[in-house]
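Deliverable D4.2, example record:
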Amino acid sequence: KQPSSQKLDRIAGDLLDLTKLERHDYAVLFRHKMGLNRYGPALSGPISSGPADVAAAGSDSKPAEKTAFDIRLEKYDAAVKIKIIKEVRSFTDLGLKEAKELVEKVPAVLKKGLTKEEAAAIVEKLKELGASVVLE
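Output generated by the structure prediction step:
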């Protein structure tokens, strides 16, 4: 077994080798594994331990309103690909290469965890450029 300092150095090195998109995916996975809400602080209250808890939680009269939205690029015209890549770079912290790869692998989620207002503004810009975008 590795001493803890060597193990931590190896893990830190592996994390630094990830691309920005991979780091984002890792952060989401890490928060999920730690029992944290997808975009916020830890969940409060008892942890669900079985079907009875799920049934009790599902008996609320009104479902919770969605507060975090994802932007998914479905398709775009090849003639506006460069403009789409530039727009993606404007609202993400991706470099040119990462943004290009993301746009080329449509359908793809461009940005996660946005408020409805932020997401609507980005969706509108992308639609003006000629992209087919979905707000999830």
